[in-house]
Design brief:
Elements lengths: L4 E6 L6 H9 L4 E5 L3 H12 L8 H22 L4 E4 L8 H7 L4 E6 L2 H13 L9 H12 L10 E5 H6 L1 H16 L24 E4 L2 E4 L12 H21 L10 H6 L2
Parallel strand pairs: 1-3, 1-4, 2-3, 4-5
Antiparallel strand pairs: 6-7
Helix pairs in contact: 2-3, 5-6, 6-9
Amino acid sequence: MSGVRPVFVLGSPRSGTTLLGSYVASHPDCADLGEFFGFYSTLSSIPRMMERIDSPVKYEYLSALVQCTLRFANDVAESSGKRFWCDQTPFNLLAIRDILSLVPGALFILTLRHYSGAVQSLQRSFNDGYRWAGATIEESAAVWARFYAHARALDDSSTIVVSFDRLCANPRFEIGRLRDALCERLSVHAEFNEDVLARSHATFAARQTAARVSADGFEFTPVQSVDHVAWTDECDARCMPHVLDVDRYLRTRFAEYADPRHMSCYKAGAR
């Protein structure tokens, strides 16, 4: 058994997983796997591709492939003297039950983003050629719901929950809360590089981030996680049949889950 701690950053696509994953991976004790896709591929994609293959060694091969993926991730960290590694692939949430069985000692960071902002961002991704993001807001809403429905499998004792909407509204406080939780769970010093938060991972490259680095130094800047003008009551009504059950579940279970349209401090601080 490897002594390296696995860390997975999970969430719907366009929920801040890459941003927060970059922050976690900036620690000097972390091996950055980026959006590795190795676990999702070996646990979900490849088994689906091989469903109709008639081979007496298929399942032995798939099992060996999964173990190889885990061994590879651990070897990357151990070979560079790191204490933990970070996989930022949001699609891992779709394979979370298998991941929990494979790496029972892993730490999970669940990024929650309200469906309104996530759907808007998924629509931009679709327009940039990512067909899986959904051609309509109904399809994008279904993508959001499909991912977060799997959050039910996560255990509170091994999960740190971060609201992307609260992060946008009050980045200094939310990053501080995440930093403290990571230090406690991973038993590391607070050596994360906040500068990585100034790099945008949005489809629209010019989109403002929750932090910026200038000649005067580093500073956090509240931003909007949803375009309140563009998100109309009609948009909400079209999404509701697809998101209702999952939205209700997230509201019930996670105190961190927030609707940015109802956050007075958000509207006051955003710019």
